[in-house]
Specification:
Number of domains: 1
Number of helices: 5
Largest sheet: 4 strands, antiparallel
Shape: globular
Order of helices and strands: HEHEHEEEHEEEHEE
Length: about 190
């Protein structure tokens, strides 16, 4: 009951969070997110911020905010400093995840007036925010590059490149390769695609 009634602890129920990374060549992330068979999409955040409107919710980040990584859990006192507590909840992770160099965008208490095509519940015409999944529409110029995993199949590779070029004909395509001298990945730009 305390958790349900405490608006500070309950902030996460009212948040839409988009998690991004500043790196495209993390050996760990390629391994545990898609076994090197998937893709990494490069987004130009300067273009993205043109599509994010502060009216989308009660609080909206129009630019990514970096995650803070900590060894110890040291929560601010939400009775004394609500803003610090809110930021702590949204932008703090364990130090073990620091290699992700995560950047987050969020919308707090999304406004259905600004969100396109959101389904409404039948009763009382209210949204169940835990069930709604929607994305802010951004322009094709926001999609800057695409990185193809080391183990991507030829079929998936061709399909992804075709789709990416339909979205943005100027998108840069990179193929990831293992570095033969170090435990790293190397991105090689595909020419003429």
């Amino acid at each position: 009951e305390d958790l349900e009634s405490n608006r500070y602890i309950n902030n996460r129920n009212d948040l839409w969070i988009c998690c991004l990374s500043k790196v495209y060549d993390s050996l760990l992330m390629w391994s545990y997110y898609n076994k090197h068979m998937g893709v990494c999409i490069g987004i130009n955040m300067e273009y993205v911020k043109k599509y994010i409107h502060v009216g989308y919710g009660l609080m909206v980040t129009t630019q990514g905010q970096e995650v803070n990584y900590r060894d110890i859990i040291k929560k601010p006192d939400y009775f004394r400093d609500y803003k610090d507590f809110f930021n702590y909840q949204i932008f703090t992770k364990a130090k073990a995840w620091e290699h992700e160099q995560e950047v987050r965008l969020y919308i707090f208490k999304p406004s259905p007036m600004f969100m396109a095509l959101l389904p409404f519940q039948q009763d009382k015409n209210e949204l169940n925010w835990k069930e709604v999944r929607s994305f802010i529409k951004i322009g094709p110029e926001c999609f800057d590059s695409i990185y193809l995993g080391v183990n991507i199949s030829n079929t998936d590779r061709d399909r992804v490149i075709c789709l990416a070029k339909k979205i943005n004909p100027e998108i840069k395509v990179y193929q990831m390769f293992p570095d033969t001298n170090f435990f790293n990945l190397i991105a090689v730009q595909e020419e003429g695609i």
